[in-house]
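Please check this protein record:
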Amino acid sequence: MKAIRLHEFGGPEVLRHEEIPAPVAGPGEVLIRVHAAGINPPDWYVRDGMTVMPEAMRPPIPLPLIPGTDVSGVVEAAGPDAGDLAVGDEVFGMLRFPGFGGSTYAEYVTAPATDLARKPSGVDHVQAAGAPMAALTAWQFLIDLGHDDPSPFQPFTHRPVPLGPGTTVLVNGAAGGVGHFAVQLAKWRGARVIAVASGRHRRFLRDLGADEVIDYTTTDPATTVRDVDLVLDTVGGPHTGRFLQTIRDGGALFPVFFGAVDPDEAATRKITVSSAQVRSNGRQLTELAHLLAAGTVRTAVDSTFPLADAAAAHTRAAQGHLRGKIVLTVA
C-alpha cells in the first residue's frame, strides 16, 4: 500500500510518500480501506518531534511512523472479536489516541473496533474524516468527558459545565476545527454562543448558530464581553488569562491547549480553569454520528489534498486561519 511516513522530524518536507506492506487486523480490530484521513494539530506536533511541549515532558516517538488519527473508510476485513462490524461497513473514527499508533495517512489501516462508529448516512467520507478528533474534543470538553483520565497539564479530572437556556458560552478560535464544532454543540444544548474569530468568518459562524460574532482583529473581546458562564479557548497560549475578565464569578475557563492563567485571580473569583485530554471513544462518535446525519452538526472542510500531497496539506495548516478541517483524500 501507499502511505505517508516520517523517518526524521522537521517541517512538512519530511513527510515521505512510500510503498510499504499493508497491515493485518488483529483481535478486536478491523482493517479499513481508507477513503479520507483528517489532519489535526497533533499530526504536525509529532512531525516536528513534539517541540511544542517542554523537553522534559516529550514522550519518545518511534520512527519510522505513519502520522494521523482520523479516518473514514470501508471495512475490508475483520479480526477475531471485532464486535458487530462486518466487511463492507462504512466507518469513521479517531484511532488509538492519545498515542502514536493511529497511522491513518495510508491506503489501509487497522483500527480497534471500539474506536469506530458507523459513518453517518448523507455524510461523505471527507466530511466524516474531518470530524473525529475535533468533534470529540468539543464533546469531551463541553458535553461528556467519557473517561476519568486527567490532562497532562492538571492533576484533577475535567468536568464539563451543564449547558442550556440561560447559559452563555464564548468560543475563542470559533472558526477552526474544534471551535466550529463547539459552537454547534453549545447551540444544540440551548446555550447563547459568542464566537470569536476574524471578521471574514462572520457569516459562516452565524450559519452555524452563533448568536454574536466578535472580530478579534478589530475588537478585543476581553474588554467588551462580561459575565459569560464559560469560555472555551481553542487557541490557548500566553494570552488565555485575559479571558478571565469576561467570565462571571463562579464561571469556568476551558483552555483546549495549555494556556497561561493567573491562578490567584481565578481562585479569588472562584473561576474553574480546566483542561482535558481527548481520547478515542466509539460510543461518543456514534452519538455525534446521529447529529451529523440529522444535520444538527456539520463538518466544515477548509481544503482537501491527495494523500501524496500530505506535505502541502501541512503547509496549509501552518498558514493558519482555517475554516474547519483539512482532509487527505485516498483513491
Observations:
- DSSP finds nine helices and 15 strands in the chain.
- Residues 61 and 156 are 26 Å apart (CA to CA).
